[in-house]
Predict the structure.
Amino acid sequence: QVQLVESGGGLVQAGGSLRLSCAASGIGFSINVMGWYRQAPGKQRELVATATSGGSTNYADSVKGRFTISRGNAKNTVYLQMNSLKPEDTAVYYCTAGEPYWGQGTQVTVSS
C-alpha cells in the first residue's frame, strides 16, 4: 500500500524557520517529480514547490527566495526548508508524488 508520510510542521513566529520531510513507501519505482502543496483555510490548494529526481526545481512566486525544496538520498523522499516564514504561509502542507499519491498533510502555523 502506498503511503506518503509528512513530518516537521508546527507553530513558529514570523521570521522563523521550519523543515518539512516526506517519505513515500510502497512505491516500487523511483518517482521523478515530488512536491509540496498547501491549503489555507477558505482557500484552494496551491502549489508550493516541486523537485525532480534530476535536481530541477520549481517554486511558487510567493515562496521564491525563502523556501528550498530538495530530494533526499533515500529513494522517494523530499524536503522543504522554509525560512523567513510569514503569517500568510500558515496552511496545511501536503506532500505529493503525483496523482493519486498524497500525504495526509502537516499543519504549519506562523504567528505574527
In short: The chain has a mean pLDDT of 95. The longest strand covers residues 18-25.
